[in-house]
Amino acid sequence: MEVNELKDRVHAILEPLLQEDPSYYLVHIKVKPGHIIKVFIDGDQGLPIKQCTSFNRRLYKAIEEAAWFPEGDFALEVSSPGVDEPLILNRQYVKNIGRKVEVTLNDDTVKEGTLLNVTEADILIEWTEGKGKKATQQQLLIPFENIKSTIVQIQF
């Protein structure tokens, strides 16, 4: 079975499960050699382990019953995207408003700032330039079409 066909089939099974609670959504599906299927799901309020396990069990059972892999030789991993995964969906950007992000533009310029706003077309970030009394707040509106990747920066 071809990779894109497998992704489409997994998505078709997953869609009704996600519709049961609209606060959860599919971010993306990766298929690795050896029939390793990785499904990344997120939620507007995060993805609790219990919910992740439920998606995994139900999806695994459906794939087994569909007998796509006669020998049962596949692996399924369901998780939320890790902190090092770039934001993909507009909904992920919205969820991260108020957090510090690193935005890499198509020309490889990197901008860091706090994500202030998200629309269908662009994002607005803000950062402080300078120190002390000379510090000024800067803002930049970045169209999605100019963004190569955006990664949330974890602060300790």
Index terms:
SH3 type barrels; 156 residues; 3-stranded mixed sheet; 3 helices; 26% helix; alpha+beta
What is the compact description of this entry?
The protein has helices at residues 3-19, 49-66, 90-95; strands spanning 24-32, 36-43, 75-79, 100-105, 110-118, 122-129, 136-143, 147-152.
Quaternary state of this entry equals single chain
What is the element string, with H for helices and E for strands? Answer: HEEHEHEEEEE
- What can be said about the biggest beta sheet? 5 strands, antiparallel
Structural shape: elongated
The proportion of residues forming helix, as a percent range, comes to: 25-40%
Radius of gyration: 19 Å
* Number of β-strand runs: 8
Give the CATH architecture of the largest domain: 2-Layer Sandwich
Strand order of the largest sheet: 7-6-5-4-8
Distance between the termini: 44 Å
Low-confidence stretches: none
pLDDT averaged over residues: 94
Instruction: Estimate the strand proportion.
Output: 35-45%
Which structural class matches the secondary elements? alpha+beta
CATH homology-level superfamily of the largest domain: RimP-like superfamily, N-terminal
How many discrete structural domains?
2
CATH level 1 class label of the largest domain:
Alpha Beta
Separate helix tally = 3
CATH topology of the largest domain: GMP Synthetase, Chain A, domain 3
